[in-house]
């Protein structure tokens, strides 16, 4: 047979019987959490052959480039981010480049703030950044507290502390220049040589409060981070098969396409040999390793009236983020509701991460209203109840393919 089987991902419970035989599609290596631990995933190694008939708990993964005719288009085209400085939406692989360009452009607006952004954003070692800004703040503090002392207004650029803690980090020199220092070559006291110094300009002595504000801004700032774009989408009521079918781009995974193929090949070769030998602890450890392969997750929430709300999340975000996402999409955000994971498991602990709940790299959840509250709402309504989603979201409703 051109089809080989591998163990499906972990799950709290098997999927409901109504959806059990419906095939889902996702990139190779995606362990779908909706399947029972005993279910198997079938992977097509010969795209010319049709898959076997779907069995309860089965799911089909298609390699990119080997999709069957009529396979669904990607559920999302990629992972996108919102730049906090420009408001632009950029794709994941363009995020860092765009952020750097945006910060560079901000120098024309506020050079002090822009240099602080550079220091905190482009230097990834947080311990080095902390030590750097604390040392820089000490320089500014000495000037503020002792403005009459000329020695505090000069910083020797070849000083060992300055070189090891400050000079080697991006953005630091721009900061000193922005707050009023200039480079000068001066004689070294008691030495017959010249050295380069940062020297505070004379006019800054009358603006010491500004210097203090810059110091506090330097200490309190955080890295500039692009915000994950939820790509909120609302779909018309759709058959369960379409709603549970996901085609994810490789943006959602830590591994490259080739690494995913290799990973699955090795797993397939080892699965029969290992299945009889693994202890429960070993299986749980392997499941956790699987969950760490995913950076993002695509989640769909099906409302009782059939409408589906879709959004993109970090795999390590907490369940509370999904509750907030749904709440913000409601016309009446006070309406109490519960979210049910595949298999009907209630998501009651909102502090758990999606990957801890098995809701990666994608999942179809259900929303259940508080029955007593909804009965009162319906009884008080003078007209026929419509969707609980906001009208502006329903205006852009789409159809799942």
Automatic annotation (TrEMBL):
Q: Name one Pfam family in it.
A: PUB
Q: Which GO terms describe its cellular component?
A: cytoplasm; membrane
Q: What is one process in the GO biological process aspect for this record?
A: response to stress
Which keywords fit this entry according to its UniProt record? Answer: Coiled coil, Membrane, Ubl conjugation pathway
Domain (UBX) spans 292-367
* Top-rank lineage group of the source organism: Eukaryota
Compartment(s): Membrane
Coiled-coil positions are: 194-221
Q: Which CDD domains match?
A: PUB_UBXD1, UBX_UBXN6
The yes or no answer to whether the keyword Cell division is present is: no
PROSITE patterns for this protein: UBX (PS50033)
User: Mind telling me which InterPro entries this protein's record contains?
Assistant: PUB-like_dom_sf (IPR036339), PUB_domain (IPR018997), Ubiquitin-like_domsf (IPR029071), UBX_dom (IPR001012), UBXN6_PUB (IPR042774)
Q: Does the keyword Membrane apply?
A: yes
The protein's predominant localisation is: membrane
Gene3D superfamilies, per database record: 1.20.58.2190, Phosphatidylinositol 3-kinase Catalytic Subunit, Chain A, domain 1
**Lipid bilayer topology:** Peripheral membrane protein
Tell me the PANTHER family matching this sequence. UBX DOMAIN-CONTAINING PROTEIN 6 (PTHR23153:SF38), UBX-RELATED (PTHR23153)
Its biological purpose is as follows: May negatively regulate the ATPase activity of VCP, an ATP-driven segregase that associates with different cofactors to control a wide variety of cellular processes. As a cofactor of VCP, it may play a role in the transport of CAV1 to lysosomes for degradation. It may also play a role in endoplasmic reticulum-associated degradation (ERAD) of misfolded proteins. Together with VCP and other cofactors, it may play a role in macroautophagy, regulating for instance the clearance of damaged lysosomes.
Assembly with partners or alone:
Interacts with VCP through the PUB domain (via C-terminus) and VIM motif (via N-terminus); the interaction is direct. Forms a ternary complex with CAV1 and VCP. Interacts with SYVN1. Interacts with HERPUD1. Interacts with VCPKMT. May interact with DERL1. Interacts with PLAA, VCP and YOD1; may form a complex involved in macroautophagy. Interacts with LMAN1.
What is the protein name stated in its UniProt record?
UBX domain-containing protein 6
Q: What organism does the UniProt record list as the source? A: Malurus cyaneus samueli
